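User: hey, got a sec? need Nucleotidyltransferase with HDIG domain folded
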Amino acid sequence: MSLISWAYDLSEAKLRDALPRRWAHVQGVARQARTLAPVAGSDAELLEAAAILHDIGYAPDLVDTGFHPIDGATYLAKVNAPERLVHLVAHHSYAVYEAELRG
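Assistant: Yep! Here you go:
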């Protein structure tokens, strides 16, 4: 199974029924990421996987800290996702700045 297929299956399992609007959102982000494949080169698969998984930390059964980038990345690390993917999820959308604001 490819990284992209694995990421879609996982994201769908965690978000589709519990958070259908979030599921629709991440699918849209993934579609946009796919358009960047020509410039992403060898990182295209990683980029699309990160796009579909970037909000997985909102899944109700994954909420721990309440900070979705960290909750998502922690879960991905537990399921042995590639380290770069875990880091991309942890640091998406200026997460470092929000983390500072949250203390």
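Quick note: The chain has seven helices and no strands. Let me know if you need anything else on Nucleotidyltransferase with HDIG domain.
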